[in-house]
Amino acid sequence: MPINIPDDLPAGAALESENIFVMREGRATSQDIRPMKVLILNLMPTKIETEIQVLRLLGNNPLQIDISFLQMATHESKNTSQEYLDKFYYTFDEIKDLKFDGAIITGAPVENISYEEVDYWDELCEIMEWTVTNVTSTMHICWGAQAGLYYHYNIPKYPLNEKMSGIFGHTLNVKDEPLTRGFDDVFYMPHSRNTEVRAHDINKHPRLHIISESKTAGVCIVTSEKAGQIFVTGHAEYDAGTLAYEYERDLKRGINPNIPYNYFRNDDPHNDPVVTWRGHATLLFTNWLNYYVYQRTPYDLNDVGKEEFR
């Protein structure tokens, strides 16, 4: 089944070229079916690239999904025109009275400053609080995961001595977790961040469960009680070339970054990347949609947030 997107969303053409099943808005209105409604709060500066990455993973499943994009009204984007945002993105005021089966909060390049100094922090806190009662399950990604853990559970972040950039192997702490059903004993995921959350802080909170970790990259996947909230500290959605783009960008800025770990063939940035995470990325998003959205959400969206559905 397809993901339903606006008729002229630029990401649609890219997805269709990859044979990702998308349905344009006009066609979707003729379907007599209750689709899943998923909200994507896109905090990344590269809006279209992030749209493609996330929609690609959401589109590889048997469910029909209506996608809505959310922007921060209290932040002025430097990389995406306001015209584009006004056309394809909602503000929180426009959707705060609605309910959704699922939501995704992406990462953002603001991790080197404190949460409270982020210009849209107050608005983000309002949205994260709203998801508790208006969304069946919310997936937080990278900085979005750190921000969610801090807001909901007061889990701090810590600066790293050097950027965690590359493809890292992870193992499972919980073998029967539906979110990672079908995963191999070792799976790979990209990380790209300058800060981290730590297991000893998370383990102090009885409602949080660390599902997966890496010896090098640390905590990877955390779930809350009943999995209403999912926190993924890596970037499972990244394209093959995303880390290469970030590496070249940082070189041009004079940051002198380390070569992303276990990424380029033979660790030589002149070679192409070796993609080792795509299958598990697809499985992660498919499992989330199936086990923690589709199988737990009420048929009547007005019932989302009621105790029996939490």
Average pLDDT, rounded to a whole number, is 90
Shape call? globular
SSE run = EHEHEHEHEHEHEHEEHEEEHH
CATH architectural category: 3-Layer(aba) Sandwich
GO molecular function: homoserine O-succinyltransferase activity
Pfam families: HTS
Organism: Candidatus Methanoplasma termitum
Enzyme class: transferase
Q: How would you characterize the overall build of this protein?
A:
There is one protein chain. The protein has one domain (34-299): Rossmann fold (3-Layer(aba) Sandwich), CATH 3.40.50. It has 310 residues and is an alpha/beta fold. Helix 1 (10-17) packs across helix 3 (47-58). The chain is built from ten helices and twelve strands. It is 30% helix and 25% strand. It has helices spanning 10-17, 25-28, 47-58, 82-88, 92-95, 121-134, 143-153, 199-202, 242-252, 278-294, and strands spanning 3-5, 22-24, 36-41, 65-70, 89-90, 100-105, 135-141, 158-172, 186-196, 208-214, 218-224, 229-232. The model is unreliable at 26-32 (pLDDT under 50). The two termini are 26 Å apart. Strands 1, 2, 3, 4, 5, 6, 7, 8, 9, 10, 11 and 12 form a twelve-stranded mixed beta sheet that branches. The chain is globular, with a radius of gyration of 19 Å.
